[in-house]
Amino acid sequence: MVAAGAALADEVGLANLTMGALAERLGVRTPSLYKHVGGQDDLNRRIAVLAMSQAADAVGGAVQGYAGRDALAAAARAFRAFVLEHPGRYAATIGLEPSGPDDPLAAAGRRLLDAFTAVLRGYEVDPAEVDHALRMLRSLCHGFATLQAANGFQWSADIDESFEWLIAFADRGLRAR
């Protein structure tokens, strides 16, 4: 059911995902869904956990065997592809706080951060600055991907070229530290 909710969120947008729409998609009555989830907030949270886990798998798998700029490019491309392919489920992850260290959302979030932290090992980032570097990478990748998913780049420059420019910019910045 969570996977069906995530797929529907990708199609219609997270803001338009309702228990009623999901029930209709699944061919059941809405009250039947409450046997599986506690309501809309619980469904959204479960979708966020799924999305964070899938993003962690995508980025973690992409960086295997790479270092430095190659790892950065692989991670950034995998993250962007995930957001573009799954905009609704990715939206569920934004601003959601784990309820504690044992929350599945916290575990999935750590896995995604670990994948990006692996990228940073190819650079001489001071351990005291790793959090700043991670925030920079997340901001660049998240910002670009969510703007692209929302059709926010409507001028003539090639979007893929712009993304490669972003990767090169981040690489130069990380090397300069």
Automatic annotation (TrEMBL):
DNA-binding region: 18-37
Keywords for this protein: DNA-binding, Transcription, Transcription regulation
Gene3D superfamilies per UniProt: Homeodomain-like (1.10.10.60), Tetracycline Repressor, domain 2 (1.10.357.10)
Limits of the HTH tetR-type domain: 1-55
SUPFAM superfamilies on file: Homeodomain-like, Tetracyclin repressor-like, C-terminal domain
A Pfam family hit: TetR_C_33
Keyword DNA-binding carried by entry: yes
Highest taxon in the source lineage: Bacteria
PROSITE patterns: HTH_TETR_2
Classification via PANTHER family: HTH-TYPE TRANSCRIPTIONAL REGULATOR RUTR, TRANSCRIPTIONAL REGULATORY PROTEIN
Protein name as annotated: TetR/AcrR family transcriptional regulator
Organism from which the protein derives: Streptomyces plicatus
Lineage: Bacteria, Bacillati, Actinomycetota, Actinomycetes, Kitasatosporales
